[in-house]
Input
Amino acid sequence: MRSRSALLLLLAVCAGAGTGLVRADGGGCASLSQECSTSPPPPPPGTCIPDGDAWAGSAMTDCCGGYAFGAYCVCVPVGATAQQSAIECCTRTTAPSSLVCSAASPPPNPPSPPSPPRPAVGNAVCFGFGAFLQLGDGLTSDSSTAVTVSGGHTFTEIAAGAYHSCGLLANGSALCWGFGVSGQLGNGLSMQSSTPTAVTGGLTFTQIATGSGHSCALLANGSAMCWGDGNSGCLGVGSYSNVDIPTAVIGGHAFAQIAAGGGHSCALLANASAMCWGAGESGQLGNGLNSDSSTAVAVSGGHTFTKISAGDIHVCAVTFNGSALCWGSGGGGRLGTGTPSPSNIPAAISGDFIIQGISAALGAHTCAILAD
Ligand SMILES: *[C@@H]1O[C@H](CO)[C@@H](O)[C@H](O)[C@H]1NC(C)=O
Ligand SMILES: *[C@@H]1O[C@H](CO)[C@@H](O)[C@H](O)[C@H]1NC(C)=O
Ligand SMILES: *[C@@H]1O[C@H](CO)[C@@H](O)[C@H](O)[C@H]1NC(C)=O
Ligand SMILES: *[C@@H]1O[C@H](CO)[C@@H](O)[C@H](O)[C@H]1NC(C)=O
Output
């Protein structure tokens, strides 16, 4: 049912010659109101009804329903919508013998853009901040949904640094993409790349880690290779220079797991002892000192760990009994020791937890997975 106000509107429209709203067909409002057909006189047949006004909106709808009242405006041709321009009315000069007011046919669906091929098993996707090409999709755009890393590569491992990313292929080859001005892509160039580029040397890696401006990876025999920003000594190569191809961490250490942080790196030896190298100003080398080292130093305390994670300026590691120890900056409480104080030796996180996994953020927090 039309509302009373719509009815009044229609009455007003029909009666209101001064509104400029006129009947297309020139007919009177018949049963609705004699005033329409007598005062003022009906407009000549074919007179246009102004578009974009109440007539075209509610009144046009009223016209459709309003035919029952004898207001046989020509409303909508078959297939048009009730809101279709009143100009449509101009094409008719006679009232229809019966009202043709079809349901609006939905506009044809626009052709959907071709969907990108669905990534295959092992393809990499990235999402987030993309200004440094770190999403690997060839673009600098941010993306809040996953975009496929270009090249169709099949990865077995992936690592996201601060502004670059790296992955390992099934054959152990490493690829990196994103920000590269410090050499952190390891491809012999000091420039960014929007798509994965091969790490130089044809080396076969078993694990890869990405930090703020550097990357490290392990060879099958446990030797560590690092590349990228060497400013703080985090490449472990005995110097503080950047290198843009994989360079061996000196000392002949055989590692089982490696982690790259803000300006430091840490790794677990085959016997589960931890070593770190690089920036040490916050105690993040865990050796009781607060100085940088460009070669690997042993973490204090003789602890053995199952896992190690390097954050921006802290490190956390899980012991064999499920405790977790952290060292470095305590800012924000990231060491979990109950105070925001730094520690340059491993300090136990407080709480009666048994932990199986831990991740020290490139920001200022830490997360862990509990074991049962
Ligand atoms: C590993 O596989 C990639 C892609 O198939 C190939 O380009 C690369 O040369 C291979 N690396 C080695 C060390 O065989
Ligand atoms: C591991 O292999 C590399 C390359 O073959 C070699 O240079 C390095 O000395 C080896 N490392 C160890 C710990 O044996
Ligand atoms: C592990 O090996 C390193 C290097 O050989 C050694 O310095 C360290 O004491 C060993 N750690 C343990 C717990 O045996
Ligand atoms: C677990 O191991 C750590 C490091 O080795 C040690 O400090 C701690 O006392 C041990 N905790 C328990 C409950 O044995």
About this structure: Residues 1-104 have pLDDT under 50 and may be disordered.
